[in-house]
Amino acid sequence: MIKFERFELDNGLRVLVHEDDSTPMATVNVLYNVGARDESPDKTGFAHLFEHLMFGGSANIPDFDTPIQMAGGENNAFTNNDITNFYDVLPIQNLETAFWLESDRMVALNFDEKVLEVQRKVVVEEFKETCLNQPYGDVWHYISDMAYKVHPYRWPTIGKVPKHVEDATMEDVKSFFYHFYRPNNAILVVAGPVKTEEVKRLTEKWFGDIPRGEQVLRKLPQEPPQKRLEKRIREANVPVDAIYLAFHMPARTDPDYYIVDLISDVLSNGNSSRLYRRLLKEQQLFTSIDCYVSGSIDPGLLIIEGKPAEGITLEKASEAIWKELEQLKAEPIPEQELQKVKNKAESTLVFSELSALNKAINLAYFELLGDADLINREAELYQQVTTDSLQRVSKALFIEDNCSELFYKAQKGEVKVV
């Protein structure tokens, strides 16, 4: 059981405190309720750009890394479709350093043309390195575009094209910051050998006078049900062929999310999982195969990806995967097999909760979902999944009309899209 206290400042900043004396290090985690889904279709990649800009200095701090390193700590951040998350881990005696750092960039980010230009170049280079120059690097651009027609999940976190970030003006950047990076759109979690009263004092001292922003009201277009199989072929200079199947699945807060997550484990989590054991080890149709869920707040995707063995066509690879999916729909999974993946899921949760940093990140995320105590009930929700419910959801999930299929073909010479 992970215990925590919760309070809120007058400016809307939500704060959770987890007292944990098992570690000498404290974690300060700030989650901003902003991700790629909050971008305009013609200005994508902004949330990711801001992850970089937030390290570009603020009113009283020209460089974020040096103070945290001098305090014996480390910091980092990540962005996805839904959130942007910053964290600092440092010795408890230097806890206030993290409050100073995080509050200063929340209240007065350094809006400097030189900083913006540097970070624009960094982000564009990252786009080129990870998406354009890396084998299969643009896969998510294709999958997102195939699976989503109206919802902003139709572009990946890094953005549609580098030009959107290249063209970002100072006015664009300031507008995005003052709309989303406000205390009433953030969740602060402090975990470690801390006392709640001391955290309250520090929070009021450093964050209390930061003005509240306008309330963020999302009116994101709801993705309609997919009505037909989406098929695409991408030809590029990659080492081997690859196949990707993406199926629409429920949102993170839907009770069926846990069922789909376990379905992905049944298919591909460990050497005894179905796709690995049958298609890779026994039939030797693949050299690698995986299945995972996007886990996004709005309805997401279950993805199966694999690289066929030499001499195996993508058509045959697809046929073999569908055969396994049809069996999952036709026959209830044996109780013993289901219990095994449940136990694996539970042990993964327990292991992740050994880290104060993971606990802080998860508490912030579950608070955003509407119930921080979900961190204590997830294992139970996985254990409640039955063979009947798993078969029911498999039948709804694994139908052609709900699938986007990408054949990524290896081609020497000129790169082209078919």
Topology summary:
Layout: E1 5-8, E2 14-19, E3 25-32, H1 46-53, H2 65-70, E4 74-79, E5 84-91, H3 95-107, H4 113-132, H5 139-147, H6 162-166, H7 170-180, E6 186-192, H8 196-207, E7 230-236, E8 242-248, H9 257-268, H10 274-282, E9 286-293, E10 301-308, H11 314-330, H12 335-352, H13 356-369, H14 378-383, H15 387-397, E11 403-410, E12 416-417
How does this model look, in words?
The chain has 418 residues and is α+β, with helices and mostly antiparallel strands. Helix content is 41%, strand content 19%. The chain has helices spanning 46-53, 65-70, 95-107, 113-132, 139-147, 162-166, 170-180, 196-207, 257-268, 274-282, 314-330, 335-352, 356-369, 378-383, 387-397, and strands at residues 5-8, 14-19, 25-32, 74-79, 84-91, 186-192, 230-236, 242-248, 286-293, 301-308, 403-410, 416-417. The strands form 2 sheets. A 6-stranded mixed sheet has the order 1-2-6-3-5-4, with helices on both faces. The protein has a 6-stranded mixed sheet with strand order 9-10-8-11-7-12, sandwiched between helices. A hairpin with a 4-residue loop joins strand 4 (74-79) and strand 5. It is globular, with a radius of gyration of 23 Å. The termini are far apart. The relative contact order is 0.16.
